[in-house]
Design brief:
With about 190 residues, the chain is mainly beta. About 10% of the residues lie in helices and about 55% in strands. It has one domain: Porin (Beta Barrel). It starts with a helix and ends with a strand.
């Protein structure tokens, strides 16, 4: 078994090192373009500009138990700007109390920051508008629309974003703090 794994490892390493050094040039319509150049997404059809992903938030088991999911879809308007929609859902339960369900839509925009690429490649600005609803024990609560803005960093499809709730009020906000951290990204 060890020999088989070692053979597979050597095969993969030799294959990637053999082809990794050759420059790849694409010739299309009498033009030559290097693969390292970023293609303008405005040349792509609508379907290829759509991005799908999501996030998981507030995972905690015990007291309280918190589970959050957030599927999202984005549209890459330009190489640097993505606009999208997410639907958030969070289950929240303290031992001995009724479960609480929080849900609602988020409209967001992400703009890639080229000026930070030497320090943080994949840095972006993000702004959002969100509306949340809560249901607990047959009662419904409607939170005010929340406006958030902040910075994020993307790596390998995953995003880590720190947002500040611009109109935070502890009585009318679904968050316990004006600072909101999101983990997720576009995977397809």
């Amino acid at each position: 078994m060890k020999k088989l794994l070692f053979f597979l490892f050597l095969s993969i390493v030799s294959y990637t090192s053999t082809y990794a050094q050759d420059p790849i040039v694409i010739k299309q319509d009498s033009t030559v373009r290097d693969l390292d150049e970023e293609q303008d997404v405005r040349d792509l059809p609508f379907r290829q500009r759509l991005k799908f992903g999501g996030g998981i938030g507030g995972l905690q088991f015990g007291n309280p138990t918190v589970i959050g999911v957030s599927p999202m879809v984005g549209y890459q308007a330009t190489n640097d700007f993505i606009v999208g929609l997410a639907v958030d859902y969070q289950y929240f339960k303290f031992t001995g109390r009724e479960a609480q369900n929080q849900y609602g839509p988020r409209l967001f925009g992400q703009y890639r920051l080229h000026l930070l690429e030497n320090i943080l490649s994949g840095a972006f600005l993000q702004g959002e508008l969100q509306k949340y609803y809560v249901s607990v024990s047959g009662l419904s609560i409607n939170y005010d629309v929340q406006a958030l803005a902040g910075l994020g960093i993307g790596f390998g499809g995953f995003n880590l974003t720190a947002l500040y709730n611009l109109n935070y009020n502890e009585r009318t906000s679904p968050y316990g703090s004006p600072l909101v951290i999101r983990v997720g990204g576009f995977f397809f």
